Amino acid sequence: MESALDHTGHAHEPLRIHVERVVRQYFAMLGDEIPTDLYELILKEIEQPLISVVLEKSRGNQTKCAQILGLNRGTLRKKLKIYGLM
């Protein structure tokens, strides 16, 4: 059975597969260097585009965006300010 391809030509894979691939590439790029605060770095890298896309899909409706993300509206607004999305 053939896999469906996305716009980049890659087979549809679970998000966790993409994250694993990128983390492995990151470590390969670092070589012997040991990163610090990797967990926080990855969360920030994922959170901003996630919020941005959901806000776009909810047509700027913060209440709807917060519901989709499973956040309360106050938390969403705080994150919007942090990422300059307001």
TrEMBL record:
Pfam families: HTH_8. This is Putative Fis-like DNA-binding protein. The keyword Glycoprotein does not apply. It comes from Psychrobacter glacincola. Keywords: DNA-binding. Belongs to the transcriptional regulatory Fis family. Residues 43-82 form the DNA binding HTH domain. InterPro entries: Fis_DNA-bd, Homeodomain-like_sf, HTH_Fis, Trans_regulatory_Fis.
